[in-house]
Amino acid sequence: MAGEMSFTRVLIANRGEIARRIQRGCRKLGLESVAVFSDADRDAPFVAEADHAVCIGGAAPSDSYLSVEAILEAARATGAGAVHPGYGFLSENAGFAAAVEAAGLVFIGPEPDAIARMGSKIEAKAAAEAAGVPVLPGYRGEDQSDARLLQEAKALGTPFLVKASAGGGGRGMRLVSDLGDAPEAIASARAEAQSAFGDPAVFLERYAPRARHVEIQVLGDTHGTVLHLGDRDCSLQRNHQKLIEEAPAADLPEAVRDRMRAAAVRLAQAIGYRSAGTVEYLYDPGRGEYYFLEMNTRLQVEHPVTEAITGIDLVEWQLRIARGERLALTQGDVQFDGHAIEIRVAAEKPAENFRPETGEITLWAPPAGVRLDTGVEAGSVVSHHYDSMIAKLIVHAPDRAGAIRRAITAIDAFAVGGVGLNLAYQRALLAHPDFQAFRHHTSGLPEMFPGGWTEPSADSRDMALAAMALHLRLVPAGASPWESLGSWRLTAPAGQPGAAFYWDTTKDDPIRVSGSGPVLTAIQPDGQTITVESAVLTGGRLSGRIDGVPFSRIAYVVRAPSHWRVHLQTPAGMTATDLRTLEDQHLQRATSGSGVADLLSAPMPGAVAEVRVALGDRVKAGDTLVVLEAMKLLQSLPAPVAGVVTEIYCAPGDTVAGHAPLIKLDPEENT
Length: 671
Fold this sequence. Notes:
The structure is a single chain. This protein is α+β, with helices and mostly antiparallel strands. The protein is 26% helix and 33% strand. It is built from 17 helices and 40 strands. Strands 14-13-10-11-12-15-22-20 form an 8-stranded antiparallel β-sheet, sandwiched between helices. The protein has an 8-stranded antiparallel barrel with strand order 25-26-27-28-29-30-31-32. Strand 1, helix 1 (16-28) and strand 2 form a beta-alpha-beta unit.
């Protein structure tokens, strides 16, 4: 693409928070936006906020966001002159970029050839070597025979990685620490690469333990100018998926930093790169060396931390560059201010092996005063069809320690109901001594939590405050118990106010709350008592005085199907406490006799990937019966009891609803 390109309407070939982010960039430049959406996203905020919107197919990505023809038809129908791919989906698909340009539209990104070259890990490393960028020792040859790969593995020595050439996100990757395991690792990496990317080619690469992931943001125009916008550290990862990103990369020797930045610019110039892109490195602190990993030819999820420290709007410049504009700044104009951290907010349960969460968001109360890029709001439905990341929390401070404090403070003020999020886990990472002292690395999570991680819960004092918050929700301060129904017991001794009882759903004995005026008292089952004067629940805050000392906590009370959930800000972070009233308790007892311990049900909507049993099979409790795919992740569903399989209600390829029955067992005790 050369010269000036004119367009006034941009189709955004993506969804969720990145679609909203690109819409903001379009509005800034006076451009109209076109949203394309699937059936599952019909009511999503990014659809409502677009200037134009077109449904392009079913909920499955292959029927909508991965359908090149449907996207191009939407562009033609709406008169869009350009297409922005965002990240994920088709953003690094060279064929899609070429199809956009062949349709006479502007692709807001690099040339298709640059995408193709950097999309092949083997070709990308060859291009890096040619540009004088260090690469890890390994084998990247065309001979993909078992004999050649095993020969190269022996020469390379352990530990090494087998990696898919077309891979990403950790898929098609295997770590080999013993040469005897190499044949199986190569075979399984090939199979996963073929399944995930349609290309079984692999390469071998030396494994650098305790390494860090450092990346350089580059920006190039169509006139040959390439700048770097500094570096980021993305070393806090789980299964090669980033959790927390920060800019600049801390604890990095300045000489190494300068070489990384210069090498990234050389590589981008060598391939004629335009638009925003990221050159990723593996940094080995022990050796003081860095090695090229890959180049992401798109906008990164973590781009906001670079925007925070440079003040440069990357989406705005992507749009300007796509119009043929020259970069209006030089490398010397790029200044760096302070430190920024981004926390990926995902709908998942880290304490339960990161189980994906789906459903309707019943409460959405984000913190004020920080940047939040999000694709949801109260009433949004989190679907199993797409990635579990629903938002990004970005903070900026003068230094790293201040950014960490701001991030923790923001998380402590973030209340969400209806679906579980990973916020408490992210808080634990931020507060961990290894992260604060920068001792973490790309595979260091097991060291940080060697015994696993348990979600914090309210302590006795906070549990009492949660019960008071619910009490005030049901019986406002100053109201008479005669004005409400619910959990009030009218059997208190004469002359004393009635008491209310609230049951923690995990315990048998209730919390007793008494008082209806300016003073409330809560008594725990163990006899611990807390008294609050001037207790008030208003505007999402519980406030009052304890022992004469004023306090104010964020508190939201939300109704769930069989109980109440109290989101309460505590010294350990935001906690969620499930409480039942007397009526809830009676209903629970009335229905508890219909147990289904012998039935395996789907914990969430998803697609059945595997059924590992047949009728008549005898299984042990914990054996995997079904593998369910939801939010791009595979969930192994275990047998709830030991027994014999008597009914199978699903088959591979089926789409099932949450709580749908999958497998029926005759428990062992009956057989």
